[in-house]
Amino acid sequence: MRILFIRHGDPDYKHDTLTEKGAREAAALSKTAADLGIGDIFVSPMGRAMRTASYSISALSGGALTPEEAYEALLRRQRDILPGRRVEVRDSVMEFLTMMNVNGNPELLKAYPNSKPMKNPPDPDIPTLVTRYRPSDLAQFMPDADGRLPEYAPRIAWDIVPSYMADHPELFERTGWRESLISKTNDLPFYYDLVTEQFDSLLSEYGYRRDGLVYRTDLGTDRTIAVFCHLGAASVLISHLMNTSPFVFLQGMSLLTTSVSEFVTEERQKGTAVFRALRLGDISHLYMAGEKPSFAGRFCELFENEDERH
User: Fold this and answer.
1) What is residue 250's DSSP assignment?
2) What are the start and end residues of each CATH 3.40.50.1240 domain in the chain?
3) CA–CA gap between residue 216 and residue 233 (Å, rounded)
4) What would be the CATH architecture of the domain defined by 2-94+190-288?
5) 51, 54, 156, 202: which could form a disulfide with 70 (CB 3.0–4.6 Å)?
């Protein structure tokens, strides 16, 4: 079995879509869709991922669908848009945006030193990415019984500074990360388990059942599934396949926009399979199209580079 994790194109995060550059990247990727041997397709429900997937779906349809028509079909969660292929929008592969509120945990300001006071907490009546599975999660961002707001705004749980990582090696241990202060004051382990269990449920539909650190199979498959998702989501799922801490990939890897990461099963013992990476973050389609890689998802290469994200 082959799994392709494909990151969305250069993003317009504000409007959850692609920039003009992102659209060009997605178009360049689509020219390789047939060569990638894509079978079934699973897409994050976020706009930038659906927009990216729509170009490849259009290409695989042989022109029967335009990218816009493919996008509209994904919005409707229509599954029969590519004959012979399963196409599904799956909430479990949306961006892995677990949020951290450091209020009451001053030690965590060392991990998130740029945290700022929260002036406008999320409206508890409006579902947000923070509450994609448990509405009660918003409580940590709401005023307390005396009407006092949390002192610090929520931050993405895994967006921590290097100096904190240097002092906390447990973050990079296969199970030790669960005992870290970050994990104990955050829902990251809950969401990690929820997302990976749902992904394993998907793999079981193809004949691969998770059993500890390996997969068992009675009748495997050589099909290829493509997952159009995000840097954080792919990092989490890859860490699960590789049996390592998610922080190894969340902090140590940046999959560039529209990059392709390929994993394949190896069944050296009958009925027992593991996944091996064949490539990570391949953007050869961008080079072939003369498209310069996007900086999205990276931090400054040099601290003095003021035009890059710090």
Assistant:
1) H
2) 2-94+190-288
3) 24
4) 3-Layer(aba) Sandwich (3.40)
5) 54
Note the pTM of the prediction, 2 decimals. 0.93
Q: With DSSP H G I counted as helix, E B as strand and the rest as coil, what are the percentages for the chain, rounded to 5?
A: 35, 15, 45
The angle subtended at Cα 134 by Cα 209 and Cα 53, nearest 5°, is: 60
pLDDT in tens, 157-189: 888 999 999 999 999 999 999 999 999 988 889
**pLDDT 10s digits, 37-64:** 999 999 999 999 999 999 999 999 998 9
Residue scoring higher pLDDT (119 or 282): 282
Pairing mode of beta strands 224-229, 40-43: parallel
In tens, the pLDDT along 214-263 reads: 999 998 889 999 999 999 999 999 999 999 999 999 999 999 999 999 99
Residue 92 CB contacts under 8 Å (≥ 6 apart), including other chains: 194, 195, 198, 199, 202
Residues 72 and 51: their CA atoms lie apart, in Å, by: 9
Q: Is 124 helix (H, G, I), strand (E, B) or coil?
A: coil
**Where do we find the tokens 């929820």?**
194
CB 259 within 8 A of CB 6: yes
